[in-house]
Amino acid sequence: MTATLSPSRTSAPADRSRSWVVFGLANLAVVATTALATWYLLADPQISPWNFYPLPFNAALFWAILFVVYIGFNCEFAGFDRLGQPARGLAILGTTAAFAVAVTWLLANGLGRLYPDFAADRADGLGYFAGALFVLFGFGTWVMAVLNWKHWPWTVLGLRQPLIGLCEIAFIAVPTLALYLVLGLPSVSLTATDPLMPVDTVLGWFYSIVVSVILTGQTLDNWPWRIFGGDRNPRAVAIASTVGNVVLGTTIYFVMIPLVEALVGSAATAELGGVIHQFPAQLGVCWAFWMIFWANAFGNRPTRFADGVNLLLRAALTFGFAIVTFLVYYRLAAEHILHEPVVAGDLHGNALGFLDWLVLWTLFYVVGFQSFGLRRWAPAGAGS
Fold first, then answer.
1. What is the largest CA-CA distance in the chain?
2. What was the pLDDT predicted at 17?
3. With 50 as the cut, is the pLDDT of residue 384 above it?
4. Helix intervals (H) in the chain
5. Are 369 and 88 contacting, i.e. CB atoms less than 8 angstroms apart?
6. How many angstroms separate the CA atoms of 288 and 147, rounded?
7. Per-residue b/e over 99-124, b at no fewer than 16 CB within 10 Å?
8. How many CA atoms lie within 13 A of 117 on its CB side?
9. What pLDDT does residue 376 have?
10. Rounded distance between C-alpha atoms, residue 229 and residue 282, angstroms
């Protein structure tokens, strides 16, 4: 296993065939179709027989992705990798669903009985959201420990999986919880009167850090942090990536704000008011989806040019796809396909819902099921 956000895959070697395009598009068709069908079943405000949209559906979704981070990236699917397909994929899907539903229910109906911030009956589902907001910080910390730190210091200590992952989960929980208690919970608490940041800023800013983690750790093969020590000095790489991702993520946040204002238009921007500060996360999740999907289904192409050219093209391609996806989602899909309510002007939906749903199904099918049914068309180097 490799310490990437595609734990069963590595960057494919250069080959001149176009089979990687066919394989990637086939995976995209399966993921999109499955995500849409399950959306109609579980979340669609008009079609689904249940009233899960947007919460507790989004809360369970966030916990599901975090659980896949735990078992797939921190623990590198230890135990699951002993199973053949499709049993392995079904086991990952089943345990993830059970964990997500259980944690969502326990926080809202257990902890929520003691602390009203988390209560299931809180207006607009904010009790579910208050608990799930913890996951935002986990996307940054636990993923960074894998992509940028490369499991340091546990590998240096000679540990093996699943002990590496279990130690990582346990120790990283401390700074994650601290971030949540200082930045996250006060922004949605019923009792906090002066949070450090409003919730929209928390979402937009910290998700921009998550984008930085995925961009540098996966799309850019841990550049530029790797130049601070590489394999010879993993501690320096870990320190550089931690500081660097905060700086780069903050830069991304401030660059994204005028960009999303231009994308949604001046009328919608004015109507959104302070909510516009969470829209770097809305565009960021579109970019995160494409970076994750591109690495897992398209082999993180290109790989045949000089290193700098490869990295630049990957970043540009995935960001270009992200902008198109953002526009298609907010201008067309959210209203006419997903039946989500209006947000402002002619904008509908919340990309942190359906785009994360696409991320989850990418992790389920392309990574967990290893593109089951499509492997015969997989190009060389597409993973096992």
1. 61
2. 66
3. no
4. 19-42, 57-68, 87-106, 112-114, 126-147, 163-179, 185-188, 199-214, 234-264, 266-272, 279-297, 307-328, 334-336, 351-362
5. yes
6. 14
7. bbeebbbebbeeebeebebbbbebee
8. 15
9. 82
10. 34
